[in-house]
Amino acid sequence: MDTSLPSRPLPSGREARKPWRPSGCDNIALVLQGGGALGAYQAGVYQALHETGLRIDTVAGVSIGGINAAIIAGNPPERRIERLRAFWEGITARPVTLLPLDGDPARKAANAWSALLTTALGQPGFFKPNIVSPWISPRGSKTATSFYDTAPLRETLLRLVDFDLLNSGGVRYAAGAVNVLNGNFAYFDTTQTTILPEHVMASGALPPAFPAVQIGTDFYWDGGLVSNTPLQHVLDNAACLHMLIFQVDLFSARGALPRDMDEVLARQKDIQFSSRTRLVTDYYSQKHERGALVKKLLAKVPEEMLDADERALKARLAHMPEATILELIYQQAAYETQAKDYEFSAASMREHWNSGYLDTQRTLRHRDWLKVSETDAGFSLHDIHRVDD
């Protein structure tokens, strides 16, 4: 493991408190965005939730979020932190530099070198370069459509995820991917599909780096091509549940004005992958407000004046789900560049993990945020970073 760069160790595991659930809450969901190397932030978020005693009922992810989600859903609670550590310490095990580097400029240079190593060598237990470049591979060959081979990830998943447990229904799991041929978004959900390593890999098959993953007769790419957050899938399948949702975003919609080309590229990536999250959240909030208004109007109409469709609508609206959404958004360090999502040094991994852990601890101090209303309050949205602004 790389220990030369300045970084705190991963937070030591504390004994988890007795499982509990906030008042009015039927289901606790963890929604994990894509973001490559930044996914260690999600592991820190989960560790803080686990230690607090909040037990996840639903976990949904896209790309690296789908991988973290599979490790969580595919292990018993007492082994999840251990397995998340094994994954992240394993894929960041390559040393980056032997020199002690302090200060933002030196650290920025070290991160750039780390990202270059990833580009040239891949990451252990995750992906490796194809021996033959796609530019010279015969059309239609295995190496013609990607730069890397993700076979190491399959072996890692088989080692760290109990797929029988994942499919048992103890924790509902879903991973988003995109059908290569028709461009349609698809969710592989344990309530509908028996999840295999290929389903998890498909969610993270980002082109042109990684090859499409075949499932049955179809081929799939990374779900982040269409939507980088699985929030929509979670809310569409909420039924009448009152949900507490922890939504973890790895790219921030807010940021400083870029001052050079590297910052332009980093800011472009942030906006590109954060905007969908905000759009989905706003859409469902407005949808719920409209539904609540229609519900009130129908309540004023005598039952005998309603036709069959209106009665059916009234019955559906009587059981509208309520949701409290807690957003945890990774805040980029000053020395990070546009390569932050493929910079896999152990030092950066530990910093991302610690950041997620501490952000979640700060969020959970607001116990009033954890309440899920049992009225028509609809959607409540909280973000610790906006409070601090």
Question: How is this structure best described in words?
Answer:
This protein has helices spanning 40-52, 64-73, 77-91, 104-121, 151-160, 163-166, 197-203, 231-236, 261-299, 308-317, 346-364, 384-388, and strands spanning 27-32, 58-62, 128-129, 148-149, 172-179, 185-189, 213-215, 218-222, 243-249, 323-329, 379-383. It is globular. Helix 1 (40-52) runs antiparallel to helix 3 and helix 1 (40-52) runs parallel beside helix 11 (346-364). It has twelve helices and eleven strands. Strand 1 (27-32), helix 1 (40-52) and strand 2 (58-62) form a beta-alpha-beta unit. By secondary structure, it is an alpha/beta fold. Strands 1, 2, 5, 6, 7, 8, 9, 10 and 11 form a nine-stranded mixed sheet that branches. A two-stranded antiparallel sheet has the order 3-4. 40% of the residues lie in helices and 14% in strands.
